[in-house]
Amino acid sequence: MNTPLNVITLPLAQNNIIEASAGTGKTYTMVTLYLRLLLQAGENNFPTPLDIEQILVVTFTRDATRELRQRIRERTQLWLKLLESYQQNRDKSEIKDNELLALLPYIEAQLPLAIQRLSFACEYIDKAAIFTIHGFCQRILRQYAFDSGLGFKFELLEQNQEQLRQVNYQLWRDKFYSISAEQAQIVRQVFVTPDKLFQQNERLLTGELPKINQTLPFTDISAGLDYYQQQLQQFQRLEQQYLAEFIDWFKQYEENLNQQRSKSKKFTDYFDAVLSATATIEQRIALAEKLLPIYFKKNKEVELPAFVIEFKNFLQQFSQNDFCQKMHYLYVAELRQRIFEYQDNHNEKQFDDLLRMLRDVLQKPSAHKLIALIRQQYPFAMIDEFQDTDPVQLAIFSKIYLQAVTNETTTGFTVIGDPKQAIYRFRGADIFTYLSIKDSCEQHQAIEHIYTLQRNYRSSAKLIESINNLFLKAKNPFYLDEIEFIPVEAAQQTSAFYVQGQVQKAWQLLQLTQDENNGLTMEIMAQAFASHLQQLLTISQQGNAYFGADGQEKQAITAKDIAILVRNGKESDIIRRALTQKGIASVYLSERSNVFTSMAAKDLYRILRACLTPFNEGAVLAAVGCTLWGLTADQIYQLKQNETEWAALIERLLHYQTVWQAQGVLPMLYQLFQSEQIPLRLQQFDFSERYLVDLLHLSELLQQAMNQQQNEEALLNWFELQLSGNSDSEENRLRLEREQNVVSIITIHKSKGLEYPLVCLPFILNPASNRKEAFGFYHDEQKQLIWDLHNQQPEKAEREVKAEEMRLLYVALTRAKYQLIVGVPATFNAINNKFSKWDSKKLTALDYLLLGGQQNVEQKEVSYATLLTQALADNYEMQEITETDEINSPMQSSAPRELSARQFHQNIEKNWRVTSFSALQAKLQALYGEHLSDNAQDYTDNAIEVDDEETVPSAKPLSIYPQHFTPFDLPKGAGVGSVLHTFLEKLDFIQPLKTQSLQILCQYLGLDEQWLEPLHLWFSNILQQPLPEMGCLANVASTDKLMEMQFYLKLGNLFNQQQFNQILRQYHPLYDQQHPVQIEEIQGVIRGVVDLVVRQNGKYYLIDYKSNFLGDGIEYYQPDKLAKAISSQRYDLQYLIYSLALHRYLKWRDPNYRYETHFGGVFYLFLRGMAVQNNAQTGVYFTKPSVELIEKLDQLWGE
């Protein structure tokens, strides 16, 4: 049951669904819930306040994550400002945020704490756990690499279609290169080419493979080819046996079979074809399949002879189309398996691989620990746009949050979306996945309530009223019973849309009145819209068209206030041409074309080829003759005749080549564009702006690619490969040529989530493309996707297409703030091509609503005006437009303002920077190279290990380890330190060591399984080693440790090395009189990452892991040797910085914190030295800086 949402009382420690209709403030609601969690405010609170790293928010695009993070930042800053003001004057009237005002009673008693939490959130908002679904999966797989068993070293590729194509080519070769000529002919008929096959099935290669609705007569592709050959042979036998008798029988009963005598010619053509020596068996089957159902499906007057029935039964059992679908299914299934195997065995991963990998990990029986860790890290999760989820994504979140232990109150899970706006089926999103979670929640009570947002803050009251009435006109407007249309209320809005002093209607309808025989042409409608917009903008320039309200400043209507919604690029091209003719600038915001397929790309290639080979006459002529250089045929002829000019051109090309080789391709191209006056030459073309943007974009891409190419020739070869346009990378998309004060043209899909004052829908009443899909898909009663191999349920597939068309219409109608401008014909016949009965396949979604949900109406003609009046009442105005309308001449752009750059008058602190211990250590290394060994860098920051065995005398190996399998025999180097560090980071200290984890460790260290027992012994010793005061690591629970604590230590004052050395000399026992710290003065922050912070016995301990090789005997890891290593590598400077950072953090988190009482000390664990259990503390360096030292440093660096 749907319940109106109260954002203040929503229970947060449970699982919720929130359905937010368009314009009802979905993002605003999410931000309010986020702040409730931060402050632990409102009714039905979460048990504990959460910080920004514990609240997981998942959206589906990077843009959405950026927008949501910014909205949270802005509202958090607003609440902080209001609460700080309220703390001072206690005046509630100054709190203009209604939600904050409602929450004030819950936080007033702890107002300082609330302010502190908001301040912390503002400062660290960039660390908020706001991810795309792919970003979330990537983080989990890397953070819990050992728990997931997948490792953590993989390379994420945004798009890798070429890799998938290569896997497809290999499968094609494996399956078809060795088959017979007859079977190759079948393959050509069924699959055509490997590229065609890949293109047809590309969207099926990710996500879940659809189920099939029948049992296959063969189980693999090879068996399918054999099966097809057998069927062809049977058909040929039947054909040869019965063809003559069939013809005689047909001629005898020809008139009785069908009254439409003209159709009998098709049989004659069929007989001619099958008797033809050139006809193939496949062609004969196809002809028979099309004709027999027409003549023999239902015939009560003539009894079909046995041979005809046998022939018919055979064709019913064997359909060429069915066979093609079955083969495609088997091929796709095997190709998917090949792709998954490839991805699992290679480090390169695509975004969708991350989802599949995490889904598979969570399905394992051993995944309960990983699930618990994720729930512990993210006690609350909020999933945005959940109507666009798919089965894989649902499986991930269900496993983590919905299938966990019942009656658990320590987690919350809220999904928010709108099923009426589920429009991304082509991308793999599946509205039935969303509906299935609603079903399962109702059955298993995993989700207590479904809440709805019911107030629209976007559109005017009249527009909302009309859209409500329109959708309520049909009993089941969205075709699916589970998607209910709930009318929304209008928020208070004072502004309106005025033209000539009159408030405009919510709908402006442009109706064509041409003779219906001309049809509804898109070109005529586009011209009508361009004329209407030209007139509107002209009136606005005169000051008579504006947005505003009584007593408010009028806002003139400009081009940027107008959006035109289209279905695709074809519709965009038509409307843009019409706008250009009227002098109206526009931009297509949904451009998905590849810049390498543009005309500019081909021209730029010719220019680069000429620069690289200036003595190749053909290359030079091709360059100067292209659009970029722009010489005419006559100018080229004159150039060729003038040796001086030709030589000068070659000289210039040689100069550009020299610049290319010395400075790079980008500087060379910029110089060429300027010297040859390319922008000036391009101004003569209408497309100059688009061309120039592409040119600059390509220049940048070439500069980036130059870093991966060996030389200029290699770069040109790379460029030539890109011209095919196969790369689908986002960075290769065409860029917008302009964005300011132009009419926005955007697809309905991309307009979702956006709003515009005026929205134009010129083609919404044109039937959607009825291009027949190659294969049929539908969802069964269990909401599982079915591949309809036998085309048994075409009406279900069609119904799902219509349902999505309706959802697209809903999105289109709900983008406008003031007015919808819609193009309509005079009658339905104008768009339905004079069908005497409306064809349900040709009805648009808007037609369906206007007809009240009827799909077939026995009328020849109905006026749109009649239906619109019934649906929209008095909320529309109709304007008739004829094809011959001519409104004014093209608009003249207003004179551009003279612009000047803003002047900067502030001071830039040049010493302010972000530095780290590694950077400081490197500077000390440069000063004291002989004192600081190059072979003892701290791998924690720089991942550099000691690797100089010759300087260390040998020692006897440890007897408890097999020979050559001691910790001293482990490999050395940067990679080893990183792997050991990550292993310890993921290790649960109190749990027994797992063989699987050690096997993965061996894999990443490049060790064989002989190392399993030594490694098990070593890490057991590390965990059991007694540490002074703290005890051993094996007693540290997960709740008492903080791994990888990243910090930014603010240096409030300019770093003063003299005072710093003076403090160290006075309070630091390891201060080196001979080598004081010498670093130039800096100001800013020091960043770092503490390996581990442990809480034991009421104290906090700072732990840093070191895998440095100090020698191959335990004696090299005694406390005195470690102190020397600490001092020589200035690790003492590191732990002082880390200690101060931890001190400040604890002081901020706990008002009762005292350094003397609660700071336990610092451990540097030299792992190779912790090889045996002993009480001598080998491998362990422990210290605790004095309170005086920490406080002096705190004062020196200020806060």
Automatic annotation (TrEMBL):
Kindly list the positions annotated as binding Mg(2+).
Answer: 981, 1091, 1104
EC number of the protein: 3.1.11.5, 5.6.2.4
Extract one GO BP annotation from the record: double-strand break repair via homologous recombination
Identify the stretch annotated as signal peptide in this record: none
Q: Where is this region: Nuclease activity, interacts with RecD and RecA?
A: 911-1199
Q: Where is the UvrD-like helicase C-terminal domain?
A: 461-753
Q: Does the keyword Iron apply?
A: no
UniProt keyword Metal-binding, yes or no: yes
Q: Using the UniProt annotation, give all residue ranges assigned to the region (DNA-binding and helicase activity, interacts with RecC).
A: 1-869
Molecular function GO labels: 3'-5' DNA helicase activity; ATP binding; DNA binding; exodeoxyribonuclease V activity; magnesium ion binding
Sites binding ATP sit at 20-27
User: GO CC annotation: what is one?
Assistant: exodeoxyribonuclease V complex
Arranged from A to Z, the UniProt key words for this protein are:
ATP-binding, DNA damage, DNA repair, DNA-binding, Exonuclease, Helicase, Hydrolase, Isomerase, Magnesium, Metal-binding, Nuclease, Nucleotide-binding
Describe cofactor binding as the record notes it: Binds 1 Mg(2+) ion per subunit.
| UniProt domain comment | The C-terminal domain has nuclease activity and interacts with RecD. It interacts with RecA, facilitating its loading onto ssDNA. The N-terminal DNA-binding domain is a ssDNA-dependent ATPase and has ATP-dependent 3'-5' helicase function. This domain interacts with RecC.
The extra comment attached to this record reads:
In the RecBCD complex, RecB has a slow 3'-5' helicase, an exonuclease activity and loads RecA onto ssDNA, RecD has a fast 5'-3' helicase activity, while RecC stimulates the ATPase and processivity of the RecB helicase and contributes to recognition of the Chi site.
Protein family according to the UniProt entry:
Belongs to the helicase family. UvrD subfamily.
> Subunit details for this protein?
Heterotrimer of RecB, RecC and RecD. All subunits contribute to DNA-binding. Interacts with RecA.
What is its biological role?
A helicase/nuclease that prepares dsDNA breaks (DSB) for recombinational DNA repair. Binds to DSBs and unwinds DNA via a highly rapid and processive ATP-dependent bidirectional helicase activity. Unwinds dsDNA until it encounters a Chi (crossover hotspot instigator) sequence from the 3' direction. Cuts ssDNA a few nucleotides 3' to the Chi site. The properties and activities of the enzyme are changed at Chi. The Chi-altered holoenzyme produces a long 3'-ssDNA overhang and facilitates RecA-binding to the ssDNA for homologous DNA recombination and repair.
Task: State the name under which the record lists this protein.
Answer: RecBCD enzyme subunit RecB
Q: Name the source organism.
A: Gallibacterium genomosp. 1
